[in-house]
Specification:
Length: 200
């Protein structure tokens, strides 16, 4: 299940411009600041993978990284920028939704959810949309090392609340993994999970 090599392949503006070599892929998605770059770097555990999506002007692109010359990690634009205009948010959704609904090689979506804060509406909306559209989903809870702050709740309590709030959109609860890029929690579990979904 180890990641030995990661190679940036391309940025695509539309689902139909994505690579067409039929390799399986995992899309990684979450609110900006959820810890996506940290998680990808923890998974790869090598030199920093330059996330193209962080570069100005590339934020609205679908970025394909080829892993071990056999499967893809797909970095999708983050959602929920506090300052984004309503129009920019709509843009995000129609664009990314097109990718989810049309990408036959998509083995799973890893939806990153920050476990150090209470359930956020935008994450619930995204999870519910994916559930209603039968997109195969794994919840990857990030920042599970964080202790509760002030009146906040602990990560495990936030996770339980999140799961209760999405339950009605899922006949069976999707798999979920607790992670921390600081302690390495969940790293091996996530790699193993992805290899099981790929069937090798
Ligand atoms: P991105 O915008 O989703 O790519 O998020 P980043 O990976 O840049 O992380 C956003 C912030 O959260 C940074 O300040 C990170 O140091 C912090 N962060 C990311 N992952 C973790 C984690 O697992 N634990 C803790 N405590 N902080 C994290």
């Amino acid at each position: 299940a180890k990641i030995k090599e990661v190679e940036f392949v391309k940025s695509s503006g539309r689902a139909k411009d994505c690579p067409r070599d039929n390799r399986p892929e995992f899309a990684i998605l979450g609110r900006s600041n959820v810890g996506k770059s940290s998680l990808i770097n923890a998974l790869v555990r090598k030199n920093e993978v330059a996330l193209t999506s962080k570069k100005p002007g590339k934020t609205q692109l679908i970025n394909h990284f080829l892993v071990n010359k056999s499967w893809y990690i797909v970095d999708l634009p983050g959602y929920g920028f506090a300052k984004a205009s309503e129009a920019a948010r709509m843009d995000w959704s129609s664009f990314t939704k097109g990718y989810f609904l049309n990408r036959d090689t998509l083995v799973g979506v890893l939806l990153l959810v920050d476990a150090s804060v209470p359930p956020q509406k935008i994450d619930l909306d995204c999870a519910n949309w994916l559930g209603r559209n039968n997109i195969p989903l794994t919840f990857v809870f990030t920042k599970c090392d964080k202790m509760k702050v002030g009146k906040g709740k602990r990560p495990d309590e936030n996770i339980r609340n999140f799961q209760q709030l999405i339950a009605e959109n899922y006949p069976q609860h999707p798999p979920w993994i607790m992670t921390s890029s600081v302690t390495g929690l969940g790293r091996d579990e996530l790699l193993l999970h992805m290899s099981q979904l790929r069937n090798y």
